[in-house]
């Protein structure tokens, strides 16, 4: 996550990795036993509304791992981040810390939700009705809190 990462950044990053690894191992272990069709999309109530072959699990895992890797790489290059305002030397470190916290939290939430939805698909079940609203609230909450903190830091 970078040289200035705090313990909580590393904890979120490693936890997300472990969650994705566990769901990947689970899918690999049960892949031959999975009955098709499996859910490939869920509506806002968490019920499956689209189905496909079990190979779609591989695609979903690829997307989850791809997001994890891209966000992890971006986390190593703070010069790529744009906070939407000029960052001077006096607030640069704090702005990078806020952005790094946002990125770490998003990596964890995205990895957790993707893993949960892949697990539900593999088990041929729907999502819990509050899963999607909770995920959306978490993503937008993290972004909103981070943006407010960045504006106050300005």
Short description:
This protein has helices at residues 7-30, 55-75, 89-122, 131-153, and strands at 38-42, 48-52. The chain has 154 residues and is mainly alpha-helical. 23% of the residues are buried.
Blueprint of the fold:
Layout: H1 7-30, E1 38-42, E2 48-52, H2 55-75, H3 89-122, H4 131-153
Antiparallel strand pairs: 1-2
Helix pairs in contact: 1-2, 1-3, 2-3, 3-4
What features would you describe in this structure?
- This protein has a two-stranded antiparallel sheet with strand order 1-2.
- It has one domain.
- With 154 residues, it is mostly helical.
- The chain has four helices and two strands, in the order αββααα.
- The chain has helices at residues 7-30, 55-75, 89-122, 131-153; strands at residues 38-42, 48-52.
- The chain is elongated.
Q: Give unreliable regions as ranges.
A: none
User: Biggest sheet, in brief?
Assistant: 2 strands, antiparallel
Gap between N and C termini: 24 Å
Helix fraction bin? 55-70%
Order of helices and strands: HEEHHH
Structural class: mainly alpha
Shape: elongated
Domain count: the total is: 1
Number of DSSP-assigned strands = 2
Our count of helices gives 4
- Our Rg estimate from Cα atoms comes to 18 Å
Average of pLDDT: 88
Instruction: Walk across the major sheet and give the strand order.
Output: 1-2
Question: How much of the polypeptide forms β-strand, as a percent range?
Answer: 5-15%
């Amino acid at each position: 996550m970078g040289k200035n990462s705090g313990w909580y950044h590393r904890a979120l990053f490693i936890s997300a990795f472990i969650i994705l690894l566990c769901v990947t191992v689970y899918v690999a272990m049960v892949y031959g036993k999975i009955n098709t069709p499996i859910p490939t999309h869920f509506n806002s109530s968490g019920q499956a509304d689209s189905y496909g072959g079990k190979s779609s699990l591989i695609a979903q895992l690829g997307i989850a791992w791809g997001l994890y890797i891209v966000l992890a790489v971006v986390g190593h290059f703070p010069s790529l981040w744009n906070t939407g305002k000029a960052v001077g030397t006096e607030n640069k470190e704090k702005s990078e810390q806020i952005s790094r916290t946002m990125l770490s939290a998003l990596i964890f939430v995205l990895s957790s939700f993707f893993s949960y939805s892949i697990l539900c698909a593999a088990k041929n079940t729907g999502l819990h009705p509050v899963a999607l609203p909770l995920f959306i609230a978490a993503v937008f909450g993290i972004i909103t809190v981070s943006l407010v903190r960045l504006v106050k830091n300005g």
